[in-house]
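User: structure tokens for this one?
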Amino acid sequence: MPRQLLTDELWEKLKIIMLKMGIYDKPCLRKTVEGIFYRLRVGCPWRDLPTAFGNWNAVYKRFNDWSRKEKLMGIFNALVVDPDLEWEFIDGSIVKAHQHNSGAACEQETAIGKSVAGNTSKIHMAVDACGLPIHFSVTGGEVHDCKEAPKLVAELPKGDYIVADRGYDSEALRLQIKDKGAVPVIPRKKNSTRGNDEMDWCLYKYRHLVENVFARLKHFRAIATRYDKLKRNFEGSIALACGLLWLPM
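Assistant:
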């Protein structure tokens, strides 16, 4: 039997949430979920999924259906319980898109763009003060962090401080953060005439927490390199990986 990720304790916790999402408790449910996690971890084509997880096409159809109906995103949101919102950290990370993710139907959203690295996507992530993901979005790799930031910040729960790097230097974004009742901790660019006298550099040093989340997510090879053709399926993969970080909490 291939290596699995879920202990009996973690599976029971996850199963309860999946049933609340309207996912049927079939006898093969655990094998199906482990098969999805296996593919997420090793990045193999669906057709190369070990037979121990059942028919590869059945496992893929479950994953595709749950992504389409946003059930995987719902599982992630259900696992985000009592986050520490004193500090919120936001950042973006580029993901190289493999050539196998081409060929999606033209009417389906892909969130793949052209950048210096070729075909890429970008994950825009927000984490809490404990370094756990609380929200994310996916765009093409050419989308600047500052352009997606207003949508990301608008979806965040109210926190005390929102911390980001110089790529988010925007007075409009600072105003949006203040309107949410939070304090922006964003350094201004070196050519700014206003300077950084008001910056809390001690808090800014903890920005590595969001970088740590990207490092942990990219242990999953299907996230470190994007193979999914559709945006919704790639988001589903990220949601499962983020949910797995919350599962032991």
